[in-house]
Write a structure and sequence with these properties.
Elements lengths: L13 H11 L3 H15 L5 E6 L5 H7 L5 E7 L2 H12 L7 E5 L12 E5 L10 H11 L6 E7 L6 H16 L4 H10 L8 H10 L3 E9 L2 E7 L1
Parallel strand pairs: 1-2, 1-4, 2-3, 4-5
Antiparallel strand pairs: 5-7, 6-7
Length: 230
């Protein structure tokens, strides 16, 4: 089965996407707070450039950039409508002056020497047929040596008992947060179609791409986050 692309999902209206994501994803607000805290610890108190892989909608840039005027951002995303939404949202805030968002793939981005990168809930749409490894390598080559990557991804093995239990809890969690039962079921079913891999496989791919010191920092059901260093 081909991996489900982001745009192949049954997506809500784009302006509703962030609100619904909050209802679906356990600890979503905490993810951004933890990533911001990690970068505050790891980056110098001087201007820093952050690469955002999967920047559609602009929310990640807004959350990280709002209280950190020393940080500037270059985001990439392959889904043009989300890129346009990001540009619109960012253009209405002071963060927009420090941000660029491109509708392209990471391997076609000429910019390099970033001080940090994020990849939040994006890599699990990249199939593990060589493309996921190439995706991680493309991020790695655009970072300065030792620069941190904050990556948060769905993990698991579709059909495995533990993964299926977490999927069912995911659905219950969504319904408890106000999502209609049929919408929650459809979203949970998507987990069987996206290109999630086991956490051990994800860590191995990051290492093969050149990252070291892969350090877990978040877990919410089938969502896991790591810091990894170029």
């Amino acid at each position: 089965m081909a991996a489900l692309k982001f745009e192949d999902q049954k997506l809500p209206a784009l302006d509703d996407y962030a609100r619904l994501a909050e209802q679906f994803i356990p600890g979503r607000q905490a993810i951004f707070v933890i990533v911001e805290s990690a970068f505050l610890e790891l980056l110098p108190q001087t201007p820093s450039r952050i690469l955002v892989a999967g920047a559609g909608g602009g929310e990640e840039i807004l959350r990280l950039g709002f209280n950190n005027p020393n940080w500037s951002f270059v985001g990439v995303d392959t889904y043009e409508p989300m890129v346009e939404l990001a540009r619109k949202r960012l253009g209405e805030t002071p963060v927009g002056a420090r941000s660029q968002v491109h509708a392209t793939t990471i391997d076609k981005l000429d910019d390099k020497d970033f001080d940090a990168a994020t990849c939040i809930l994006t890599a699990h749409f990249v199939p593990d047929d060589g493309a996921k490894l190439a995706f991680f390598k493309a991020i790695h080559t655009r970072l300065k040596p030792g620069a941190p990557l904050a990556i948060v991804d769905g993990v698991g093995v579709a059909g495995e008992d533990r993964t299926e239990l977490l999927r069912r809890i995911w659905k219950r969690h969504s319904i408890r947060n106000g999502v209609a039962a049929e919408v929650a079921e459809s979203n949970a079913e998507n987990f069987k179609k996206v290109a999630v891999v086991s956490e051990q496989r994800e860590e191995a791919l990051l290492a093969e791409a050149g990252f070291s010191r892969v350090t877990p920092f978040f877990r919410g059901l089938a969502i896991k986050g790591w810091l990894a260093f170029a």
